[in-house]
Amino acid sequence: MKKISLILLFLGVFLLPTTAVSAISDDACAPQTDATIVLSDSNTTYSATVPIIDGDSHLYYIYVATPGKVTISLSNTANKVSMNTSDGSCPTAGTSYLNPDDIIIQDTTSFDFNLNINANGTNAQYTLDITFEPAPVAITKTAYPGQVAVDTNTSVTYTIDVTNNLGEALTDLIFTDTLPAGVTLNSIVTPAGWNCGDINNSLPEITCITSSIPGGQTETFTLDTIINSSSDVYNTAELEAAGKEKVGSTAIVRAVSGTKEV
């Protein structure tokens, strides 16, 4: 997961929106924030009109669950807008740029960033509009449970959704998932029409192919695994289709002392 920190400086006034969704826990880019926004294939827009007091600031944490493009707009385009990257624990996203009206961030994997809006010199209000455009081909990988006790054999199920966001079929798709150290595969359930070859001989790499996915369709892989690790486990799945950029999604299983959290 890739990250970027943004600072929007403007003349304005501030009151925090109450429509934020639940926070993404234990993330280097997620300090104590005023609002958390999660964007995904099913949640593509956010809008709030907010007052701000001179000298006050609001910090948004934004998590983008699937590959795609995020556009951030303010109601007053005369506001001074600048963008700063943060320290190494929250590196810059893959592609970002600035124009007079919007900030646009896009990436080929899940990513997150902080957005800080500060009042400078007066009281006012602004409207913050955020839109998300999913990539034509998307992949989302999750793990349950998200925490395991260190150095214990714990069952963890990975769910990987691959989605065609276009109105037409994607062709010649390739799904890959290389299991990291400490992860043992028990079983895999694949969508109909996918061929994964002899997985037992290819491990730790899993490679599956299919000729096409219809437009607007999501197909799901399920991996039942055993994790035995003394450190956090990062497991990335990737998806590629003919003529489209490869996309990926990483699930993190935290290794903690004591009883696992389910």
- Range of helix content: under 10%
Secondary structure tally, helices: 1
Sheet/helix structural class: mainly beta
The average pLDDT score comes to 77
Low-confidence stretches: 3-26, 77-89, 91-100
Estimated share of beta-strand residues = over 45%
Per DSSP E runs of 2 or more residues, the count of β-strands stands at 19
Radius of gyration: 20 Å
- The coarse silhouette is flat
Gap between N and C termini, in Å?
Answer: 22 Å
Biggest β-sheet: strands ordered side by side in the sheet: 2-4-9-1-6
Largest sheet: 5 strands, mixed
Could you give the order of the helices and strands? EEEEEEEEEEEEEEEHEEEE
Quaternary state of the chains: single chain
Can you put this structure into words, describing what you see?
- It is a single chain.
- 2% of the residues lie in helices and 55% in strands.
- With 262 residues, the protein is mostly beta strands.
- The chain has a 5-stranded mixed beta sheet with strand order 2-4-9-1-6, with no helix packed on it. Strands 3-10-5-8-7 form a 5-stranded antiparallel beta sheet, with no helix packed on it.
- Strand 7 and strand 8 (102-107) form a beta hairpin.
- The longest helix has 4 residues, at 199-202.
- The chain is flat.
- Residues 3-26, 77-89 and 91-100 have low confidence and may be disordered.
